[in-house]
Amino acid sequence: MRGFRIELMAGVAAIAIGLLLPFAAGAANVDDRRDMAMEKLDANHDGVVSDAERNAARQARFKAADANGDGFVTREEFAAAGPARDAGRKNKMFALMDGNGDGKVSQAEFDAASANMRERMKAARQD
Ligand SMILES: [Ca+2]
Ligand SMILES: [Ca+2]
What we know:
Blueprint: H1 2-24, H2 30-41, H3 51-65, E1 72-74, H4 75-80, H5 87-97, E2 104-106, H6 107-126
Antiparallel strand pairs: 1-2
Helix pairs in contact: 3-6
The structure holds calcium ion (2 copies).
One calcium ion (CA) is lined by residues 66-68, 70, 72-74, 77.
């Protein structure tokens, strides 16, 4: 009977965690957020984010941001896409991504910016 209760409790806890996780994301520390982000990327759930999974997720993000599907994300599309951030920060991010400064971000620019950001995050972690 005791074992059953523990199992039941664990089940309830798992459900509660599943329900609360989306809300917890904002409050979680950076490591937790990274783990959650990794879980999202890890499509086949083998605990490893392969380059293919990473690329697929990045392309999906780009497609989601490219509202009119013309292959470029404009400043307006970027401002409307993704989590709400303050406009100044989004503008700065957009400027970083728009490598050739033509006011729109191509998939190649997006890929380069993502790779760049990943390198910077890696470097920051090693400090
Ligand atoms: Ca577009
Ligand atoms: Ca550009």
